[in-house]
Design a protein that fits this description.
211 residues, alpha+beta, 2 domains, 3-stranded parallel sheet, 20% strand, transcription cis-regulatory region binding
Length: 211
């Protein structure tokens, strides 16, 4: 549903065998591959992809957190690895990032946002603050994109959640954690510009000039 809302064409396979069948029948540009399947794990599908020299991009999903799983998956040729649980918004962002890299002249152009001393590279999840670069997660990037596109405007928590997480039932604690992470990047010291302002009982305001 989230991928289709992002105007991506989706074919869903209910099993590993069906996935291999679809890969044989269709030109699949990107595969979101769950490593744990009812009829054999996703490593077998990944192995099939690489043995057949297919150029499909692969984003692997797994609840496993062991480092060796990541090493094995990437060693077999996965282009990205997402650990469950994850935000659908994050997954869509990663899909679009992979497609941009694979299709540099695609309909997913790189986006650069600038606001005074802040420069957000949306494609590469990088924020430059007064010339210093920081890596940000896809969710942090979506938050920054929303704030930087709406400077000096009060955004409600529900509005933020609907835009960034794509649903209205916001989790106050979850949002607070991400805001705290952004503050640690944007406002590392007391003397730093103050970009994020809490509007009690409502939400947040992003100051365009850091005041």
């Amino acid at each position: 549903m989230h991928l289709e809302q992002a105007e991506l064409q989706v074919i869903e396979a209910g099993s590993g065998r069906q996935a291999i069948q679809y890969l044989q029948e269709y030109a699949i540009e990107l595969v979101i591959l769950d490593l744990m399947m009812d009829d054999g794990n996703g490593f077998e599908v990944l192995q099939y992809l690489r043995d057949a020299n297919m150029e499909s991009l692969v984003i692997a999903l797994s609840a496993r957190r062991e480092v060796q799983d990541k090493i094995l998956t990437l060693g077999l040729g996965a282009d990205d690895y997402v650990t469950k649980p994850f935000s659908p918004v994050e997954l869509v962002a990663r899909v679009q990032a992979q497609l941009r890299r694979h299709r540099p002249h695609s309909s997913y152009p790189a986006k650069i946002l600038r606001l005074n001393k802040l420069v957000l590279d949306i494609e590469n999840y990088l924020l430059r603050n007064d010339g210093i670069s920081f890596s940000v997660t896809p969710v942090e990037c979506r938050l920054l994109e929303m704030f930087m596109q709406n400077p000096d405007r009060v955004l409600t928590k529900r509005e933020i959640y609907k835009q960034v997480w794509n649903h209205e039932n916001f989790d106050d604690n979850n949002l607070s954690v991400f805001i705290s992470k952004l503050r640690s990047i944007l406002e590392p010291t007391e003397d730093s510009p103050h970009y994020l302002h809490t509007i009690r009982g409502i939400g947040y305001r992003f100051s365009g000039d850091g005041q």
